[in-house]
Amino acid sequence: MRYAFCIIHYQYKVMKKKYTLTFALSKGRLAEKALEILAKCGVDTAPLLKKTRKLELFDGSGEYRFLFVKPSDVPIYVERGVADLGVVGKDTLLEDNRDICEMLDLGFGQCRLCVAGYKDRTPKEGNLRVGTKYINITKKFYDAKGMSPDIVQLYGSVELAPIVGLSDVIVDLVESGKTLEANGLSVLEDICNISARLCVNKVSLKMNKSEIMDLIERMGKVL
Fold this sequence. Notes:
The protein is α/β, with parallel strands linked by helices. The chain contains nine helices and eleven strands. It has helices at 2-16, 29-40, 74-79, 90-96, 135-143, 160-164, 178-182, 202-207, 209-222; strands at residues 21-26, 56-58, 64-69, 85-89, 101-105, 111-117, 129-132, 150-153, 169-174, 186-194, 196-200. The strands form two sheets. It has a six-stranded mixed sheet. Helix 5 (135-143) links the parallel strand 7 and strand 8 (150-153).
């Protein structure tokens, strides 16, 4: 009986001990850069740098939990409160327009969201076709111009659309411009600059304000 009690008591202590904050990150460059910044802030990221297929990991102290999800899912995890904080591109935040707080421009993952196409091709007025995965951003951009183009939703190889006549132009992220150049396309208009942002769940910001703001302050100093 005493042995069983000890086991139950131990399990209770383990269950009672909880991490302080949960991050939602997308595997890849954004996660790597975010972890570099957190390491400089004193977070023990060593366990997160090991190769693994696990999608839920903890820092060395157990104070921070990390969930690795698709980039487009980061704002959803944060908005729903599954994660307290998330690192995601500004393009995703603009496209999804989730009810979360954008707290910090992390400065990495810099690129531009642009309209691109052939410089020497002018579509007939009122018949503009735009290929993009950024449906909402594109609609808002052209609404401001008083235009209502035919928006073709695509999920990959967007540069192919003007080449095969699926669209007249595309709206996509441009970093170096080499892919556009390789396909004979050029940037026609800039929509906005993009970089990685730190976003926070609104309820978490109230409930864990001191912990979150302390971390943000440390990250800001590193940046």
